[in-house]
C-alpha cells in the first residue's frame, strides 16, 4: 500500500491534484489507516498514471472520465474509445491551426516593424487596433 506522497512521486502528480481527482470522482476514495492516512493499491497507481498520461495528451477531465468508464467495462466496443480519441485529435488539429494563424500574424507584425522608436512601432500599433490584424482571432485561446 502506498501513501499519497509516494503515489504523488511515482506518478509525478501533486498531492493536491490527487485529492482533487478524488473529490470529482476520477479516483476512488482511498482506504485509510487507523490514523486516517490515505493508502493506495497498485490499481489506484495505474488509474492515476492513466489520468496523468491522458492529461499530458490534452484530454479534458470529462473525456478522461468517459475513457475510465469505458475502461471499467471491458466488454464494451473499442469504437467508443476510438470516438473519444478522434474527438481529441480534432481538437488538437484545430488548436494547431489556430497556433499557425497566430504565428503568421506575429511574423507579419514583426516583419512590418521597422521603426527605431516606440512611438512608431508597428507591433504596438497592431496590438492597439485589432482591425490591423489579417486574421480574426477574437477569443482565441490555445
What does this structure look like?
The protein is mainly alpha-helical. It is built from six helices and two strands. It has a two-stranded antiparallel sheet with strand order 1-2. A hairpin with a 5-residue loop joins β1 and β2.
Question: What features would you highlight for this structure?
Answer:
142 residues, mainly alpha, two-stranded antiparallel ribbon, elongated
Short description:
With 142 residues, the chain is mainly alpha-helical. It is 59% helix and 3% strand.
How do the helices and strands line up, and which of them pair or pack?
Layout: H1 4-11, H2 15-23, E1 31-32, E2 38-39, H3 42-56, H4 61-71, H5 78-111, H6 122-128
Antiparallel strand pairs: 1-2
- The residue ranges in which pLDDT falls below 50 over 5 or more consecutive positions are none
User: Kindly state the mean pLDDT as a whole number?
Assistant: 90
**Could you give the order of strands across the largest sheet?**
1-2
**CA-to-CA gap between the ends?**
39 Å
Shape: elongated
- Rg (C-alpha, Å): 23 Å
SSE sequence, one letter per element: HHEEHHHH
- State the total count of DSSP E strands: 2
Please outline the major beta sheet: 2 strands, antiparallel
Structural class: mainly alpha
Determine the number of helices (DSSP H or I, runs of at least 4 residues): 6
Strand content: under 5%
Amino acid at each position: 500500500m502506498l501513501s499519497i506522497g509516494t503515489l504523488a512521486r511515482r506518478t509525478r502528480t501533486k498531492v493536491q491534484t490527487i485529492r482533487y481527482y478524488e473529490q470529482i470522482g476520477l479516483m476512488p476514495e482511498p482506504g485509510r489507516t487507523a490514523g486516517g492516512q490515505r493508502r493506495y493499491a497498485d490499481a489506484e497507481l495505474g488509474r492515476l498514471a492513466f489520468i496523468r498520461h491522458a492529461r499530458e495528451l490534452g484530454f479534458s477531465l470529462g473525456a478522461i472520465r468517459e475513457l475510465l468508464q469505458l475502461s471499467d467495462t471491458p466488454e464494451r466496443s473499442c469504437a467508443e474509445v476510438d470516438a473519444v480519441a478522434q474527438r481529441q485529435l480534432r481538437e488538437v488539429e484545430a488548436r494547431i491551426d489556430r497556433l499557425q494563424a497566430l504565428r503568421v500574424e506575429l511574423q507579419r507584425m514583426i516583419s512590418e516593424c521597422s521603426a527605431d522608436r516606440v512611438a512608431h512601432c508597428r507591433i504596438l500599433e497592431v496590438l492597439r487596433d485589432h482591425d490591423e490584424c489579417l486574421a480574426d482571432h477574437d477569443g482565441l485561446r490555445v
